[in-house]
Amino acid sequence: MSIANTYSVPRAGANPEPRETTLPRLKAMDIEVGITYCGLCASDLHLADGDFGDMSVFPQVCGHEIVGTVRAVGSDKTERRVGERVGIGWQKGACFKCEACLAGEEQHCPEARLTCCSGEVGGFADIVRCDARFSYTVPEVISSAEAAPLLCAGHTTYTALMRHARPASRVGVLGIGGLGHLAVQFADKMGCDVTAISGSPAKAEEAYTHGADSFLDVQDAVQRARRTSSLDFLLVTTPSIEDWDAVFGLMRPHGVVCVAGMTEPATVDIVAMMERTLTLTTANAGSRNDMRDMLAFCARTGVRPVIEEMPMTDLDEAFERLRSGAVRYRAVLTI
Ligand SMILES: [Zn+2]
Ligand SMILES: [Zn+2]
Who's near 296: CB < 8 A, 6+ residues apart? Predict the structure, then answer.
């Protein structure tokens, strides 16, 4: 047994507060990591608000974009040594025996342990424990603060783009926030023609600096009409979509619309999709291989998140900033 100093959400909808939390025994394949940075993701807010049902266990300790230093290793020989810098993302364990695990798709393991769900103690704390096989070496050229958002926002957007986009693809990114500003950079570095799409024209300038080739104000019907049938792939990172027909109108025949944001339930016009033989799919966090590839890609190409660093003692303020949409573009809490 060991005690973590955590920032726990006492009940659904409340803000986090300091608390001592007992951690389970360090298992044979586990490591204990002394946390230095942890990013704040929209999923953390959903967990804090109880939106994901029994995935939240109160007091709920969120945080799944963790960077820190290995402090202890379990009794078996793990690949980790005390003192190494590692990152941890959305998933912290799997069975390593099922069909998904054997196929290198651990994110679909029925026994997946998610880093801050179902009673697991997440990264808004001074220490965290995870299966060593779900810890990742952070390339030296990436700072710990910048690495944190890559471990969920980067992992998710990179995996979706690698699956659906090719260098010649015309890619749209709807929503230029924590996920979107990374997706624009990834798609640009992959060689795609990138359209940043947002309802905030003020974000155009920065979208260009992230590598966008063009900007579309999604509220502007004239601009939208000009871009009819212009995209092969659209990554949706917004929390909701008001007009699915407008989204489908942007797609070329056989286009793929991939929802990566935690969007609300939706009804879509299947016939409108049939007219262009469109595919509607979703993005989840990727596999361990996707994570390693993504970190190497960022090290090589210079993809980095734009972050706001805040002390973890101000986590409640960070929650409020994220709720109000004020964060540009990812909040990272430091111990
Ligand atoms: Zn996340
Ligand atoms: Zn499995």
Answer: 139
Cis peptide before 239 (omega within 30 of 0): no
At how many degrees (to 10) do helices 288-301 and 155-164 cross?
90
Residues of the chain with pLDDT under 70: 1
Report which DSSP code applies to 34.
E
Distance CA 237, CA 186 (A): 14
Give the pLDDT score at 76: 76
**Alpha carbon separation from 62 to 139, 152, 189, 225, 332 (Å, rounded):** 25, 13, 31, 42, 13
d(CA 266, CA 279): 15
pLDDT digits (tens, 9 = 90+) for 61-71: 999 999 999 99
Which residues are CB-contacts of 256 (< 8 A; sequence separation ≥ 6)?
164, 232, 233, 234, 278, 279, 280, 281
Ligand 1 centroid distance, CA of 275 (Å): 34
CB 32 within 8 A of CB 2: yes
Amino acid at 319: F
Helix, strand or coil, per DSSP, at residue 204: helix
Where along the chain do its domains lie? 2-142+304-334, 154-282
β-strand 214-217 against 193-198: which pairing, if any? parallel
pLDDT at residue 266, as a whole number? 87
Tokens linked to 34 = 């002394």
Closest C-alpha to 151, from 136, 141, 163, 162:
136
Q: Would you identify the CATH topology of the domain 154-282?
A: Rossmann fold (3.40.50)
Q: Relative to the alpha carbon of 93, which ligand is closest? A: 2
Tell how far the Cα of 106 is from the centroid of ligand 2, in angstroms. Answer: 6
| Contact call for residues 117 and 110 (beta carbons, < 8 A) | no
Distance 27 CA to ligand 2 centre (A): 17
Instruction: Tell me which CATH homologous superfamily contains domain 2-142+304-334.
Output: Medium-chain alcohol dehydrogenases, catalytic domain (3.90.180.10)
CA 320 vs. chain centroid, Å, equals: 19
